[in-house]
Amino acid sequence: xxxNIRACLFNLDFPQSFWQKEKEQAARYASLVANSPExxxxxxxxxxxxxxxxxxVIEQSLKIFEYVYGVxxxxxxxxxxxxxxxxxxxxxxxxxxVNAANYHEGVISFNTDRLQESDNLFAVSVPFHEGTxxxxxxxxxxxxxxxxxxxxxxxNLLAYDNERNDKQDxxxxxxxxxxxxxxxxxxxxxxxxxxxxxxxxxxxxxxxDTPVVKRIHNKGYxxxxxxxxxxx
Length: 232
Ligand SMILES: [Zn+2]
What we know:
mainly alpha, two-stranded parallel sheet, 65% helix, 8% strand, binds zinc ion
């Protein structure tokens, strides 16, 4: 069954008119972030920014998101310890994958341990990515095909893998990067990041290879990688 789903997903794409509109809105978000000194000052001094200030950047980014798209998910923060405790209660293995951030039923959750050690674009870019998943849930994109794609339940297949499987597993990555939800979210995310870098001249800081960063993944595929998996 998964093989069949892969075959279907491989041939699925969004209309050009959809991408065009999505790019315009992503550029607007990037430009509003670039014109917010409160945010850009912190992005420039990310290493010296406190955790509270980093949380504030996420909140400010979501305000801009709401201004551009008219909708915004709820925001929550959790620690790695809290997440592991929750997983233990759910009966998952001890070494189960903990996400840097995730979106579930209208709420974006951020891992604060991971946020503290993130690169500078993370607090602007990840709310945008997860917010895109929220839009897929609650908005109409004015195109019957696009709306139908987002109403389908292929994401449930991922949810199964998501909690239990190894994130480095080739089959997992293969399926994940083919999901239309992710092709859309990574597509606009990458476009927005490039616009932001161009507008501000701020470069992405090195994401240190610390144990926390290794343990708590931000999947962060680039579109090149998504396309690489799609084109096999
Ligand atoms: Zn995603």
